[in-house]
Amino acid sequence: MKKSMALLLVGAMVLSLAGCTGSQSSSTGTAGGNTEGTTTVGAEAGDVIKLGYFGPETGPNSMTGQEARKGAQLKVKEINQAGGILGQQVTLVVYDDKGTPEGAVKAATRLVEDDKVSAIVGSQLSSNLQAAGDKIEKGGIPCVGTGLGPVWLKNGWKYFFRSQGNSESGAAPLNDVMEQVGVKSMAVMIAQDEGSISSAKLVTDEVGRRGNISITTSEVSQNTDTDWTGQLSKMISTSPDGIFLSVQVEQAGPMIKQLRGLGYEGFIFGNECLGMPDVRLVAGDAANNSIYYAVHVIPDSIEEANSEKEKAFLQAFTDEYGALPIGDVAYRTYDAVTIIQKGIEDAGNTEPTAIRDAIKNISGLEVLAGTIDYTQFDNGEGMVGTQIFITENGRNYLFEKYVDEFGVPTVN
Amino acid sequence: MQKKLKGKTSALNKAAIAVGVFLLLVIPAMLNFGIVFSANSYLIFLMCIIMIYAIATSGLDLLFGYTGQISLGHAGFYCIGAYASALLSHPSYGLGKWLGITISPIISIFLAALLAMGFGILLSLPATKLVQHFLSLLTIAFAQLVYLAVSSFPEVTNGFLGIATIPYINLFGIELDNNYKFYMFLLVVVVLVLVVKTNIVKSRVGRCFIAVRENQLAANGCGVDIRKYKITAFALSAFFTGISGALYAHLVTFISPESFMYAQSVIFLTMLVFGGNGNLLGPILGAAIITSSQEMLQAFRDYQMLIYGGLMLVSILFLPKGLYGLLRQMLQFAKDGREKHVDS
Amino acid sequence: MFVNVLIGGLVLGCTYGMLALGYSLIYQASGYMNFTQPDLLMVGAFMGLTFFGTWGWPFAISLALAMIMMFLLGMAMERSFIRTLVKKGAKNIYIVLATIALSTILQNAAMLIWDSRQHSFPSIFTKIKPFKIGGASVRPEGILAIVVAISAMVLLHLFLNKTKFGTAMRASAQNKTAANVMGINVWQTISITYGIAAALACLGGVIVAPNLGVSMNLGTQLGMKSFASAVIGGYGNMYGAIVGALLIGLIETFSAAYIGSLYKDFIVFALLILAMIFKPTGIFNAKVYDT
Description:
- The structure holds three protein chains of three kinds.
- Chain A has helices at about 1-25, 60-80, 100-115, 125-140, 170-180, 195-210, 230-235, 250-260, 275-285, 310-320, 330-345, 350-360, 400-405; strands at about 50-55, 90-95, 120, 145, 160, 185-190, 215-220, 240-245, 265-270, 290-295, 365, 370-375, 385-390, 395-400.
- By secondary structure, chain A is of the alpha/beta class.
- Chain A folds into two domains: about 40-165 and about 310-375, 3-Layer(aba) Sandwich (Rossmann fold), CATH 3.40.50; about 170-295 and about 385-405, 3-Layer(aba) Sandwich (Rossmann fold), CATH 3.40.50.2300.
- Chain A has a seven-stranded mixed β-sheet with strand order 7-6-8-9-10-13-14, with helices on both faces. In chain A, strands 2-1-3-4-5 form a five-stranded parallel β-sheet, with helices on both faces. A two-stranded antiparallel sheet of chain A has the order 11-12.
- Chain A is globular.
- Chain C has one domain.
- In chain C, helix 9 packs across helix 10.
- The relative contact order of chain C is 0.20.
- The longest helix of chain C has 29 residues, at about 1-30.
- Chain C has a two-stranded antiparallel ribbon with strand order 1-2.
- Helix content of chain C is about 75%, strand content about 0%.
C-alpha cells in the first residue's frame, strides 16, 4: 500500500503544479491584490502585448528591487494610457527572483516558456542575469538588463542589451577627478558582492593603468558585517589622500558614518551607490566630501531635476507612488521599457527576434539616462557616459557645476 | 472476508501504481513535447529541483529521522558537493585551471559526494560526543565555515562572482542539456537513492540507527557502538546531500555562495520535518510541498515569506509527524471505516 | 590604530554580548535554544526608533516603553507557541524549528510595518561630543554600549543566582517536575523568562542602534556571531556570554586590521569550531556532553 501511495501522491503533485501554474500566468502582474501601478488597463486576452520582468522583490536587495519594479510598471501604465503599442495594451508579468541565481533561472524559465513574453526587462543584479542568461538567450527573447556590471554582455549573447552605460564608463572620469583634487595615494574597500567587486576592479585597473595614484591597501567587507572598525582603522593608518568605497547602498551609510567617526576627514570616492538618498539620510554630514560617478542622482525635489524629461518622470512617479524614487534602478527599468517600446514599434510586430533586431538598430533614442545608440557597439551596450558628482553641504552637485561655483576642492 | 479485503486492496494497489507512473512519466513527456499541454519546461525544471531536494532531504533523514541527530548545517554538504563537482569538471576553474584536466561530470559528482562524506566523518568525530543542542550548534558553525571558505578564497572559487557555464552531465554520449533529459536522469537517480536507503534502513545498520535514536543507554547496553553508528549516519547523510549538491550544480550550471547560506540548511530541515521523517516518502513529500508552495506564494509578493513562516509555524504546531503522518492517519480512518462497513 | 581597533573590538563585542546574554539566559532558564532573539533585537530597535526618532519622545521613556512591549511580546510568544509544543511533548528540534519560523515571521512583519531600508538612529547624547582616548575618537554611544553590556551581565548573574525568582527560573529549567513539587509555578516562570529575554534583546537593540543603524537584517547580521559568543563563553553562563562576545569582537576586529579583512570571518568560525572540538564547555564550563 505504501509504495503505491507514494507514487500516486508524487504524481498528484505534478498535476497540481501544472494546475497552479496554469492559473498563475493569467493573473500575475496584478496578483496578490497589490495595486501599485495597475498593469492592465482594459486588456482582452489575445489583444495584449506581454512583457516580462524579474528582479529581487524579496531578499537582501528588496529595497532597490521594489523600486525597480515600480519604475517599469509606471512606464507600462503611461504607455497604456497613451494607447498602448501598435494599438495594443501592454501587460507586465512580474516575477520575484528572490535575489538568488536559482530564483532568476526559475523566473526566466517561466517568462520564456510559460508566459511566452515578447521581451524582458532584466534584473538589476548582474549575477542573476548571468545565471538566467542562457535560458533567455536560448529562448530567443530580447532582454534589456538593468545591471551595471559589464560581465553579462561579454558572453557573446545576441539577445541582451543594457539600458544605460555600464560601470566601466565611470572609471576614467573618476580617475580624472581624483587627480584633479590632488589624490596621490588611496585605500580601497570592496564589498563582497558581484556589483561592488566589478566596479572596484574597473576603477583600480584604471588607476593601475595611469600609474599616478598608489593604492595603499585593499580591504574587504562581507555583507553580514555591521562594524568595519578593523578594516577602516587599517585603511586610515596608511594615511591615504583618498578612500574608495565600492559598496552597496545598505552598507554605504553606516560605513561612512564609522569612517568619519574614526577621524577621517578626507575625500571618499565611490560608485553610484553613494548618490542614493539613503546614504545621506543615514550618514548625515559624514557624507559630505564624497565624490562618485553615476549616470544620474536622484534630486531631493522634483524642481532640482536635471532635465524636463526627468522632471516629468519624477512627477509621474510621485503621483503614482507618493514619494520620489529611492534608487536609481527605477530610472533604469523605466528606460528599459521605453527601449522595448521603441523596438516593438520599429519592428511593427511582437515577434521576439524581430523586436531584437529592431532594438539593435536603435540610435538616437532619448531616455532618462541620456541617448541610447546600440549601433555604436556590437555587444548590446548602448551608451557610454557617466558623470561625476560630489556631495557637499548635504546635497549632490554635478562636479563641474560645483567647481564653477566653489572652485576645485583639494586634498588638505 | 480477509481474503476479499486483500483482493480489493491489491487491485487498488495496482491502480495506484499505474496512475502514479502515468503522472510521473507521461505528463512531463507531454509537457516537454507540447502534447495536450503547451510546451513548458518550467514545470519540469521545478520537478528536477524537487527531486534534488528530495535526495538531499532523504540524506538528512538518515541522520535525523533514523538516528535522531539534529543537523542545522546540511547546506555545508550541499555546498561541498556543488563546488567540488564544479571545480573538478569545469575547464576554467579548479582542476581545469591548474592541471588542465577535467573529469566527466558523472564521475565528478560521485567524487564530490565522497568528499562531502569525508567532511561528514570529520565533522562527526567531535560532534558525536556532544549533547543535542551543541551538536546543532556545531553543525551550524560547520556550514558557516564552508560558506566562508567558498566566499573568502576567490582565487579558487571565484567568490561572489560565482562559477558559470558548469558543464552538462554526459551520459553515454548524451548531453543532459535540457530540463527534460535531466528529469529522466533524475528519476533514475531518485529510484536508486530510495533503493539504497531502503536497504540501509532494513539492514542491521538501520536498526542500530533507530536504536540510537530511541534510547542510547539501552542500545549501549545491547552492545551497539553508539559512536560508530552516529559517525556512519553522518557519513551516509553527507554522501547523499553531497550528491544532490553536485546535481544542482550541473542542472542550473551556475553556482555562487549565496545559494548555500544558513537559510538553505533550515529549508532542508523544514522539508524533512514537514514531510515526515523516518520513512521513505516523507522527505519527498516535504520537498515537493515546500518547493511548490514557494512558487505558488509568488503571487503574494511582499507577504510571501510572512505566509510561508506562518504555514511553517502552523504545521509544526499541529502536524508533528509531518504530512506523511497526517496522510497515514487519514488512510487509517478510511480503512477503519471500510472495515466497519464490511463487517456489518 | 591600535587604540581604535581595541575600542572598536570592545564595542563590537558588547554588541554581540547583548544578544549572547539572551541566548544563554533562555537556555539557562528553560533549557531550549531560541532563534528568535536576533529578530526580537531588531524589532526592539525599530520600536525605539519609532518612539525616539520618529515621534520624538524622550529617550528614557522610549526605551522603557519599548522594553515593556517586548517583554509582553516575549511572554505572548512563549505562551502561545512554545508552551503548546512543550505540552504536546514535542521533541526539542520542533521547538527550535518553531523559533526559526517565528524568526521569519518577525522579520517579514517588521518589513511590512516599517520597511526594508536602512535607517539611522538619532544620537542619544546630543550634548556630549565624541571624546578622545589615547588618540582615538570614541562616540559616547560606544561607551554606553560597553557600560550597559557589563552591567547587564552582572545584574543578570546576580539575579539568576542570588534572587528567589532567579533560582526558581534555574530550577524550572533543570527539572520541571521537581520544581513544581517545590511549589514553583513553572509555566509562569518560563513565561517571564522569555519576557525578560525579549526585553533584554530590545535593550540591546536600542543600545547598538546608534552605532549600527536599524534595518530588518540587523538581527541576522549579528545573530551568528552572538551565538558563537555564547558557545565560546559557555552556553548558559552570563559571564560567559559577555566574555565570549568580547573575545569574538576583538578577534574579528584585530583580524580585519592585522591579518586580512577577507579572512576575518573565516578565522572567527574556524576558532569556534576548534573551541567546540577541544573545549565545548566553553570558558566557563557549561554542561555539554551526552549522558
